[in-house]
Amino acid sequence: MSSQTPPHHRLFMALVGVISAVLNTAAFFVLLPTNGQIAGTPYARALTGTLAVAAFVIFVRFHLVSSARNLWWMLSQGALRWFRLLIVLVVLLFFTHDGSGELRTLLIEWTALALPLQLIGLALLRAAAHAINNAPGNQRHAVFFGFCSEARRLNLRLQRSPLLGIRIDGYYNEMPVVPEPGETLPPYLGRYADAAARVQANDFQMVFIAMGEFNRENLTTEIMDRLYDSTAAIYLVPELRFFDGPTTSSASLAGVPLLALHDIRILGLSRMVKRLVDIAGASLMLLMLSPLMVLIAIAVRLDSAGPILFRQVRYGERGEPINVRKFRSMRFTPRKEDEEAEGEVRQARVGDGRITTVGRFLRRSSLDELPQLFNVVGGSMSLIGPRPHAAEHNELYRRLIPGYMLRHSVKPGITGWAQINGLRGITDTPDKMERRVEYDRYYITNWSLWLDLEILVKTIPSIILGRNAV
């Protein structure tokens, strides 16, 4: 599979491979009893297993989601791919069996049954992909900045591809463009400067910058800083051969090549799978750790006066405020005297007198984070993702670090890529926070279930060693 294929598309491709293997072998298995010559023999079992592997290999590269064509075109491509499987089976029978009328009849009957099943399976999977990608929380609102010829081609492809779950809200340009004959343009939203408020409000989940319209004065100084302070996925639609801005990676959408300044991989089916893993994992951990959490709650209450849980407003996905819970590890102060003074955010430090005796142990072992499992079950957090910071931290560092808010393109996590790479604990300088943001953006643009598993496994020794914990 191409490295440019997004993970949520690759998941559907893998699903197509699995379903195709099941449907074709099931049809073959159902018809085997009608052939007394090979029914129930080791040869029949080997033939069925080989057929399953061949069906998976042939269909695992089938682009069910990324295709910009209609259903009938997709089904025709599926039928052509299925005939490869038929050829494989004919070749297998030719070289492994002496041939008979019964086997020819079996082959004809299998064709009559398996081909319709294959096409019905593809149609149902495509309908499921459409439903998933357009479900609330998965459908993405997109906008164009500039409208060069490649941007217009991408707009046309996206209009023809509702399967992708991308809704074009409109385009910004210094002046409206004139539609070509037969062309349907998205709404004109105004000049570049008019985009500031909506970008700041995170109204868009995807932004396409038409490089053919690239203007350093209009886009770099007025728009790019705003975009890097948003949570949108940012793509360049190239018509120039160069761009001296931030690091980019290649991408494609609806068959149009793009340059991604910030790509988001946790979408569609990937998002659903990650959510199922979060619910199952967090629920299991709550069940197993509930006695420990009760003991911690008692210890916190006996150690110092105040509430057992500490609640703090942090930024979640798309910059939305969420309430994050932790076991209280500091002395309770009814006033906000310790939180912020003269614009300075005060973090816990080594030897901080505000930390209680029990709290010091909880922070070093990360046990104070356990109540965030309820956030995971509730859907405001994930087990793995960028660690959420206090709202005051966000407002401070989003002004200092370009691209800081892009880390909020996905749900925050209890642990993350930055934490297992030594960036756990205090971030008392912009340089430290900038490094954390780099790791968080790497996670977002390179996400996979395997990466989540790696982070989860590596978190355990990180907690035991207590690296950078305060």
Strand content: 5-15%
Strand line-up of the largest beta sheet: 3-2-1-4-5-7-6
Oligomer: single chain
Largest sheet: 7 strands, mixed
Structural class: alpha/beta
Could you give the order of the helices and strands?
A: HHHHEHEEHEHEEEHEEEEHHEHEHHH
The geometry reads as flat
Approximate helicity band: 40-55%
Structural write-up:
This protein has 470 residues and is α/β, with parallel strands linked by helices. Helix content is 49%, strand content 13%. The chain contains 14 helices and 13 strands. The chain has helices at residues 7-31, 42-59, 71-96, 101-133, 149-159, 196-200, 216-227, 268-303, 357-365, 372-378, 391-400, 417-420, 430-445, 449-465; strands spanning 140-145, 166-172, 188-190, 206-210, 233-237, 249-253, 256-262, 309-315, 321-327, 340-341, 344-345, 382-384, 413-415. It has a 7-stranded mixed β-sheet. Strands 8-9 form a two-stranded antiparallel ribbon. It has a two-stranded antiparallel sheet with strand order 10-11. The chain starts with 6 loop residues before the first helix and ends in a 5-residue tail after the last helix. The model is unreliable at 240-246 and 336-343 (pLDDT under 50).
